[in-house]
From TrEMBL:
<feature type="transmembrane region" description="Helical">
    <location>
        <begin position="180"/>
        <end position="198"/>
    </location>
</feature>
<dbReference type="GO" id="GO:0005886">
    <property type="term" value="C:plasma membrane"/>
</dbReference>
<dbReference type="Pfam" id="PF01925">
    <property type="entry name" value="TauE"/>
</dbReference>
<feature type="transmembrane region" description="Helical">
    <location>
        <begin position="262"/>
        <end position="281"/>
    </location>
</feature>
<protein>
    <recommendedName>
        <fullName>Probable membrane transporter protein</fullName>
    </recommendedName>
</protein>
<dbReference type="InterPro" id="IPR002781">
    <property type="entry name" value="TM_pro_TauE-like"/>
</dbReference>
<keyword id="KW-0812">Transmembrane</keyword>
<keyword id="KW-1133">Transmembrane helix</keyword>
<feature type="transmembrane region" description="Helical">
    <location>
        <begin position="204"/>
        <end position="225"/>
    </location>
</feature>
<keyword id="KW-1003">Cell membrane</keyword>
<comment type="similarity">
    <text>Belongs to the 4-toluene sulfonate uptake permease (TSUP) (TC 2.A.102) family.</text>
</comment>
<feature type="transmembrane region" description="Helical">
    <location>
        <begin position="136"/>
        <end position="159"/>
    </location>
</feature>
<keyword id="KW-0472">Membrane</keyword>
<feature type="transmembrane region" description="Helical">
    <location>
        <begin position="72"/>
        <end position="91"/>
    </location>
</feature>
<feature type="transmembrane region" description="Helical">
    <location>
        <begin position="98"/>
        <end position="116"/>
    </location>
</feature>
<dbReference type="InterPro" id="IPR051598">
    <property type="entry name" value="TSUP/Inactive_protease-like"/>
</dbReference>
Length: 306
């Protein structure tokens, strides 16, 4: 019972982060399952089965708060489902050890771009509201779905930074659309695992615990992403991408850094991230005060007499 309660709390916390930042449910949950001895395929299958419920709840919540761009959901979700099914079906014979550092390096680069862009300039508006093309979203979805099922998580970390970096969709709608489309990925990956593994290696009690925690957190996260300023949200997303993928690179065979080096790097990243967030918050408050003063000045200008 204690383990089930712990899993429910992990599901709640993971979905709160995922629904607010568009990533981390699968990564967090899978990491815990692996830590207690679950084999990779069964861990990923458990998480994806739970995600059928959590992503449905999250998608409905984001839709009700106006955070979903449906054309993006369709254009990225269908290819993503294909990639997820393929990755889940062949997980036992596929290795992501070589691809993982390459993907981490790409994501780290995107994370740096997002952190610098949002912290320094705020919400990108030069291309905002221009359509995201299928030729961009379809390959992105295919790769993200494949990585998600083979790695136990990755739909958000791959999809969210790529769409954010395009500057064509505001952050809350990027997150809402990615979370909503993940419902398709969860279904496809779960079907793939059931075909490849059967159900004997999946603990459905663990699935239920993760599901309950995630469903409770979904509407809270959807509300949160609507009310967090885009500038602050962009800095938060950039920081978590940098921290997550720096950890992957430092622990990879490419670098295999000793513990002292890794922990020093993590500390520096967290300090820079905290400073960027503080700067973004101050800049947002300054912009809001300036907008309020402009409105007051406009209201005080006397209307022209006839």
């Amino acid at each position: 019972m204690r383990k089930l309660i712990m899993l429910a709390l992990v599901g709640l916390g993971a979905q709160l982060v995922d629904g607010s930042l568009g990533m981390a449910y699968g990564v967090t949950s899978t990491t815990l399952l692996l830590a207690i001895g679950t084999n990779p395929a069964a861990a990923s299958a458990t998480v994806h089965l739970a995600e059928i419920g959590t992503t449905l709840a999250s998608g409905v919540s984001h839709w009700r708060f106006g955070n979903v761009n449906w054309p993006v959901v369709i254009k990225i979700g269908i290819p993503g489902a294909i990639g997820a099914f393929a990755g889940a079906t062949f997980l036992s014979s596929l290795s992501t050890e070589v691809a993982a550092p390459v993907m981490a390096l790409i994501l780290l680069t995107l994370g740096l771009y997002i952190l610098i862009r949002f912290t320094t300039f705020g919400l990108p508006t030069d291309r905002l509201h221009k359509p995201l093309r299928k030729r961009f979203l379809a390959p992105l979805g295919l790769v993200a779905g494949f990585v998600d099922s083979t790695g136990g998580g990755g739909w958000g970390p791959v999809g969210t930074p790529a769409i954010l970096a395009s500057g064509r969709l505001e952050p809350r709608k990027v997150i809402g659309s990615i979370d909503t489309s993940e419902f398709l990925i969860a279904i496809a990956a779960s079907l793939g695992f059931l075909v490849g593994l059967g159900s004997e290696n999946i603990d459905f009690g663990w699935v239920a615990a993760l599901l309950i925690g995630g469903v409770i957190a979904a509407p809270i996260a959807a509300w949160l992403v609507r009310h967090v300023p885009p500038r602050v949200l962009g800095s938060a997303v950039g920081g978590i991408i940098i921290l997550t993928n720096s950890r992957s690179l430092l622990r990879s065979d490419w670098i295999d850094a000793p513990d002292g080096t890794r922990y020093t790097a993590y500390a520096v990243i967290v300090l820079v991230w905290a400073a960027a967030l503080a700067y973004s918050i101050r800049a947002h408050l300054a912009d809001r005060r300036a907008a309020e003063h402009a409105e007051q000045d406009k209201a005080e200008i006397p209307a022209p007499t006839a």
